[in-house]
Structures are given as C-alpha cells and as structure tokens.
C-alpha cells in the first residue's frame, strides 16, 4: 500500500511539473527565451502532443528532454543530459547571440547546438525540436541526435546509434544495449555493446554504400532503404487510421527494439506492433554477469540469481549477480570448494568470447567431472551428446524453450564451506589430531632415515666429488646439477616461492666460482615422457636465449626422474604482486617502461633468437622483476617440455583463463599470435593498473559491466569515453594521448582473428609512436558466431 501511495504522489508531481505554465506559450521561441527546472518547465508543440523542457526524474533532478505530453504516461523520447541530470533551478537559454545553452546552478554551461547562431527555436508536432536561423534554415534538431527512441518522420543514418536506458523509467542514463546502423557496411545490429560487442540481432543488409532506417510518417511502417529501393522491412501491420494513434520505436533496457502504438482516445498503455526479438532470453547479457533469464509469458525477460549467487543490485536484477563465496584463481584452485548444480531445460547462448571446449560423445557425469576439475571453467551446456564448457564469468544463462533435445545447464558454484574466514580449510578436531599424529610419525621416520643415509660411506664419497661438466653442458654453456646439490641449495626444497602451470619454484643459494648467488629452482611437473636427447634439445634452446628482458637460465638437473631448471633469483617478485598492490599504484612512467621491456623480450623470442619460441602463457605471474625492477619474462620455452607438437593445442597446456587466444579453444594451429593476444590483455592490465577480470568486483558505481577489462575498454572506446577507465589515475590522465594510443594497441592485439593481430615488431613500433595506430576493428565490428539465434524474420 505504501508503495502505491508513493507512486501516486510521484505521478501527481510529474504531471504538475510537466504541465507547469505552458498552456499559453507560443510554439516559436525567440532570442532571450528560457526555461527553469521546477518552474516554467516546458514548451509545448502547437497541438500539445509533445513538450520540450525539464522532465523530472528521481531525487529532484531533471532531464532536458522531449516527451508525449497529452497522455497520462509522460513517455520520454529524447534527452540531452541523460547521464548528468540537472538539479532544480537549472536553466536552458536561447541567448541573445543565438546559442542554446543548458546552465547548471553552479554556473557550468553545456552548449546544445553546434555554435552557429540561431534566431528561433520551436517544438514541432512531430516530436522534433528545431533551431533555425533568420532564413528558416534548420541549424540543429533533436531528430539528428536520438537517444533511445525514433518517431514517425525520423530517419536513422549510417553511423547513428540508439542506446537503451539503464533501468526503464527509473534510470534514463545510458544502458547496456545499442542499436546501430553500421557505418562500414550498412548492417543494422542490436548488441550488448558493453560486453565486447556481443551482437544478437541483425538485418544482414551489408555491402550497401548508403543505407537509412526510415520511420515512415504516412504509413508508420519502419524499413531500411538504400539509394534505390527498400532492402529490409520491419513493420507489416499497424492499426488504422494511423492518426488515431501515437507511434514510437524504442530500444529498451531489456535489449529489445520494439515499435509501439498508443490510442489517442481512451488509451491506457503502449502496445507493441513489431519487435526485433521474439524470445526475450535470446538477448545477449540481458541479465548481466552470472544472471539467469526466464520468460514465462515469452514477452518479458525475468532475471534471477542462481544458487550460490546474490544480486549486484537488488533494485535492478538485470545488472547481474555475484558469487556469495570467493572464486579462487587457478593458482589456488581446490575442487573441494565447489559443487556442480544441474539445471534442467536450461542452457547458455553460444558465445565465442566465453566458450572454452567442446567435448564430443560425453555423458552428464563426464561433463560434470570436466567442469568440476578444470579451474578455467565456470559453467557448461550438456545436450545429451556434447558438453560445451564456458569460462568465467558466465553470461546468458537461461531457461531454454521446449526442444527435442534434452538440454541441461551446469553451473560450478563456490560453496565456501571448506574454508574458514582466514582462508584455511575446516576439519574436525579429531581429524586434525589424527593428521598431526600421522604427520609427526612420518617426519620422525624420515628424519632417522635421512640421518642414516647422510652418514652412509657411499654417500660421503659421492658428496666429496665435484660435478664435472659433460659434452652437453659445454655445448650449451649451462651447468648440470645433481638433485642432491639442488636439494641442499634449497634446504630440502623448503622455501617455496610459488607454484605455476609448469611446477613449483623454490628459493636457494649456490656457491659458484667462490661466490654465493641466489637462485630460483623450478621443479618441473607433468613433463612428457621423452628421452635424454629430447630433454637436452629443449633445454639447449632455452639456454641459448640471452636478452635483457628474459630471466637467465643458469643450469639444469636431469637426474633420473628429476627434471629441474635453475634460474637467477628475481628478488622483486612477479609483476602481478607489483602491479596490483592495494596500497599504492606504480608510477605511469615505470609501467610504460615495464610494458616496453616485456614487448622487447617477446620480440626476441618470436623473431630474433636462433629458434623461434612461442611462450604460450604470457601473464603478470610470468613476468618477474629484478633488483632494478626491470621486467624479465619467465617460463619461456617450457611449453615444449609439456607438449611435443606445439603446432596443436592440448588441454594440459593452453595458457591461463582470460589470456588465452580464441584459437586455443578451437584446436586450431598455434602461432606466435597466441602470445600477441595474451600480451594485449597484459598491456591493458598494465596501463589501467587492474586485473583483466575481477570476479568479486562490487562497487557502488559499478553495475558489473566492468568485470572484464577488455570488454570494458571496448565499450568505453565505442562511447568515446575511454578516460572513464582511468578516471581516478590523475598521472595517466595527464598523459592521456599516450595512454589512448597504448589502449588502441591492446585492442589490436586481442582481436579474435589472429590474422588481424599485429606482429610483435609492429606492436613495439606502435607503442613507441614510430607508426600510426589505426582504430582497431573491435571498435566497429560485431561478432555473429551463432546467427541461428536471430529471429526468423531475417
């Protein structure tokens, strides 16, 4: 009841504010005319069907806009300041020098027209607000800069876009969805543009030089035309007579584009006469990250959170959800902290950006196991024969329509039940005591055994010998070490520095040539079965690399089943630890220096060393910093130790989630371009100083669209607001042009098509400014991997 009362009061406030004192106001406004928000708030069209002025929104703020003024539901069709509502006592003035200006109470001015002096302004009966000069020539019109709606008589030209609202009539700011008549091919596309241009509907009108969307005023039909003919029809039935109805076409916060009518006499609501999407849950990202879409009436999308997830914004479920328990990174992944939930008659829209691996001839149990054990995956679709896994975070989970196939959605849910708040695992007291007892007994047994072995005469004779270099050692200028030597140097491998995809790294000290040097020893795991010769061949390739930006290999151990590599110790740790500190942000100049160092190291591996090396796992954890904070790439060449044929992918070595190039997931040939893709993601992380994906990112100003860094950067570039990515980094903003150039390089690198990614040499040239950086194709292009999801009308 209270909510109903609030809505009635708000409706009365809206009606009184909009009607204001415009009843006797003439249609044409001369120089010096003005409106003030909260007072004389609007100028009507001659018929009174439309009004221009200050449209009240929440919290006492106003949008300078145009709305249908004769109907109870004052439907907004255009606004100038949708993202910056004006407070009360703001004014809009047609100044004496012919400028149309919105002035905020603090004196800030927002010029609306293009600067050419106007003589008059008028609100027309077709819903178009127009500025004219003394010759009645139109200088500016609202029809030329639409927001989310077009009206009869209005056209949409190539390159123009409509953007949805963020949340219906509650929030008119720019939302997640876009309708664009693409400038480069004439195709009209609906896309979830804030999620890396995930297009979900298109007209297919490509390769036409001039295309326009026409909303015909006499017939109220919408269609696309080229220079000579109609090439795509939308509306095919509108009630007659046309003039008995109001008409509009709007892209909605649900992602659909619909044409509506409203009876002028005794009308009560807007009725749809045409829609682009007939199945609401087929809209990409309609329920945001981790959201689940259902549509019981097949008219509207309902967004919910699945088990183990909570809404980012309870007042707006379409913003998506967040895991209730933390999702671990792969370095910390423990399957015991997750469970797999199976949803019947549910699936995910296919998505080239999140699809990971298709497992053929699978059963449900195998699909669940693959999902549960793989840290890279968060969800899967099972259709009774195939299992398609998806990376984090998932989008487009939905209740599927009836089908002849049995479709199930599998969701991996972090339980949090196996972890204390401190991060430790929960175990019972009796179980804990039992584990302690077993561990102490084992340690004592090992201690006595170690003492006996240490003092055995054979071991003492062995220890007295110094290792002698062999032919292989001399040939590749590396030193061979026994397993015993490295065990002693690392104090029994007790000082773990970290664990990665190739094994665990331990710190230690070696005495070489009467000098003590600090070393990092990597114990290789999951090394493929190969002979001495093959192992030495791969080590030889690594040993022959010498570059300022590569970690230096000092030696190796090939002792029985033990395979270890010995490197210089990088005392300042990984780039990940350096870059993502919570307390402070590394300086911009230092970040640029690190970025260029990584690029030069990769160029050496790809083009300058004797044998080309494809790293296959470029990420911040595999870039280390020396005493002078110089960036050095680690783990290069190790992919060959786990994979005999580096020209093909393997589930055992496929990079790291978020840095993996799409070709890894398609069993396509792997080239150096996989490193270019990973470098592009790393580049954006470095210049933006944030992780490529922040799974638990919940901020007051975030609606979930910035969870994935690459997607966020693309959407900001498309909006012309790239500075939003680094709005809190004043040092970067003062070097904005350089930042912008580097961001564009990053987007070139992460293009899904490896052919369009630049070489490492060209990347460096673009970063250094020696060659121009064009606009990346991702800024314009749409991806349509699954065109069968579009409506049958196409």
From TrEMBL:
The biological process GO terms on file are: recognition of pollen
MF-aspect GO terms: ATP binding; carbohydrate binding; protein serine/threonine kinase activity
Family affiliation: Belongs to the protein kinase superfamily. Ser/Thr protein kinase family.
Organism, by scientific name, is Tetracentron sinense (Spur-leaf)
Q: Which catalytic reaction applies to this protein?
A: L-threonyl-[protein] + ATP = O-phospho-L-threonyl-[protein] + ADP + H(+); L-seryl-[protein] + ATP = O-phospho-L-seryl-[protein] + ADP + H(+)
Q: What is its EC number?
A: 2.7.11.1
Task: Indicate the segments forming the Protein kinase domain, all copies.
Answer: 491-771
EC class of the enzyme, as a word: transferase
| Official protein name in the record | Receptor-like serine/threonine-protein kinase
Q: Which residues bind ATP?
A: 523
Any transmembrane segments, and where? 432-455
State the InterPro entries in the record: Bulb-type_lectin_dom (IPR001480), Bulb-type_lectin_dom_sf (IPR036426), G-type_lectin_kinases/EP1-like (IPR051343), Kinase-like_dom_sf (IPR011009), Prot_kinase_dom (IPR000719), Protein_kinase_ATP_BS (IPR017441), S_locus_glycoprot_dom (IPR000858), Ser-Thr/Tyr_kinase_cat_dom (IPR001245)
* Limits of the Bulb-type lectin domain: 28-144
Superkingdom of source:
Eukaryota
**Keyword field:** ATP-binding, Disulfide bond, EGF-like domain, Glycoprotein, Kinase, Lectin, Membrane, Nucleotide-binding, Receptor, Serine/threonine-protein kinase, Signal, Transferase, Transmembrane, Transmembrane helix
Localization recorded for this chain is: Membrane
The Gene Ontology CC terms held by the record are: membrane
Q: Which residues form the signal peptide?
A: 1-23
Please report the record's description of how this protein sits within the membrane. Single-pass type I membrane protein
- Per the record, a Pfam family? S_locus_glycop
């Amino acid at each position: 009841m209270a909510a109903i009362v609030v809505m009635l009061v708000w409706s009365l406030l809206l009606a009184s504010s909009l009607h204001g004192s415009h009843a006797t106001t003439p249609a044409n406004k001369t120089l010096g005319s003005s409106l003030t928000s909260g007072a004389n708030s609007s100028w009507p069209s001659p018929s009174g069907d439309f009004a221009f002025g200050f449209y009240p929104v929440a919290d006492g703020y106003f949008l300078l806009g145009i709305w249908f003024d004769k109907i109870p539901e004052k439907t907004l069709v255009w606004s100038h300041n949708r993202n910056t509502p004006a407070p009360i006592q703001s004014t809009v003035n047609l100044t004496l020098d012919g400028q149309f200006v919105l002035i905020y109470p603090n004196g800030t001015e927002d010029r609306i027209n293009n600067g050419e002096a106007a003589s008059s302004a008028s609100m027309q009966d077709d819903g178009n607000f127009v500025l004219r000069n003394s010759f009645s020539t139109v200088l500016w019109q609202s029809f030329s800069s639409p927001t989310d709606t077009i009206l009869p008589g209005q056209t949409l030209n190539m390159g123009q876009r409509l953007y949805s609202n963020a949340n219906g009539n509650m929030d008119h700011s720019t939302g997640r969805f876009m309708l664009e008549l693409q400038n480069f091919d004439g195709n009209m596309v609906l896309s979830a543009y804030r999620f890396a241009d995930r297009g979900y509907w298109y007209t297919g009108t490509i390769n036409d030089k001039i295309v326009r969307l026409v909303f015909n005023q006499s017939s109220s039909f919408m269609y696309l035309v080229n220079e000579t003919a109609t090439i795509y029809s939308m509306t095919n039935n509108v009630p007659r007579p046309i003039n008995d109805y109001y008409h509009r076409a709007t892209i909605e916060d649900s992602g659909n584009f619909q044409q509506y009518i409203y009876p002028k006499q005794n009308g009560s609501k807007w009725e749809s006469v045409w829609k682009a999407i007939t199945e609401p849950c087929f809209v990409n990202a309609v329920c945001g990250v981790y959201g689940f879409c259902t549509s019981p009436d097949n008219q509207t999308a309902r967004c919910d959170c699945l088990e183990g997830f909570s809404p980012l914004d309870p007042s707006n479920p379409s913003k998506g959800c967040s895991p209730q328990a933390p999702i671990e990174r792969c370095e910390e992944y423990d399957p015991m902290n997750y469970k797999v939930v199976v949803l019947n008659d549910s699936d995910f829209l296919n998505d080239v950006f999140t699809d990971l691996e298709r497992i053929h001839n699978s059963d449900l149990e195998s699909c669940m196991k693959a999902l549960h054990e793989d840290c890279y995956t968060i969800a899967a679709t099972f259709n009774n024969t195939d299992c398609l896994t998806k990376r984090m975070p998932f989008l487009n989970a939905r209740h599927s329509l009836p089908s002849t196939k049995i479709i199930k959605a599998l969701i991996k849910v972090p339980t949090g039940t196996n972890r204390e708040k401190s991060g430790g695992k929960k175990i019972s007291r009796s179980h804990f005591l039992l584990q302690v007892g077993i561990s102490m007994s084992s340690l004592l047994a090992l201690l006595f055994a170690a003492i006996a072995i240490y003092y055995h005469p054979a071991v003492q004779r062995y220890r007295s010998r110094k290792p002698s270099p062999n032919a292989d050692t001399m040939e590749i200028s590396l030193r061979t070490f026994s397993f015993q030597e490295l065990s002693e140097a690392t104090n029994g491998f007790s000082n773990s520095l970290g664990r990665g995809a190739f094994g665990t790294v331990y710190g230690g000290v070696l005495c070489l040539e009467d000098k003590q040097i600090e070393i990092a020893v990597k114990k290789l795991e999951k090394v493929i079965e190969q002979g001495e010769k093959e192992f030495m061949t791969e080590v030889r390739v690594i040993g022959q690399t010498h570059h300022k930006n590569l970690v230096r290999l000092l030696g190796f151990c090939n002792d029985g089943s033990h395979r270890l590599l010995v490197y210089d110790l990088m005392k300042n740790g990984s780039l990940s630890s350096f870059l993502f500190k919570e307390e402070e942000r590394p300086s911009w100049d230092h970040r640029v220096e690190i970025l260029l160092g990584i690029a030069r190291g990769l160029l050496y591996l790809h083009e300058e060393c004797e044998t080309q090396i494809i790293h296959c796992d470029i990420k911040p954890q595999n870039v280390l910093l020396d005493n002078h904070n110089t960036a050095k790439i680690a783990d290069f060449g190790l992919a060959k130790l786990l994979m005999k044929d580096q020209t093909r992918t393997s589930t055992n070595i496929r990079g790291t989630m978020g840095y993996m190039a799409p070709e890894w997931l398609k069993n396509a040939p792997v080239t150096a371009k996989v490193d270019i893709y990973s470098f592009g993601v790393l580049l954006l992380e470095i210049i933006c100083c944030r992780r490529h994906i922040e799974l638990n990112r919940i901020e007051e100003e975030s609606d979930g669209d910035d969870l994935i860094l690459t997607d966020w950067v693309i959407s900001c570039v498309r909006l012309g607001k790239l500075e939003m990515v680094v709005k809190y980094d004043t040092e970067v903003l003062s070097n904005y042009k350089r930042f912008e150039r580097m961001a564009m390089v990053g987007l070139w690198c992460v293009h899904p098509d490896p052919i369009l990614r630049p070489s490492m040499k060209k990347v460096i040239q673009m970063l250094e400014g020696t060659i121009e950086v064009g606009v990346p194709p991702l800024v314009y292009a749409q991806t349509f991997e699954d065109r069968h999801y579009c409506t049958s009308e196409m």
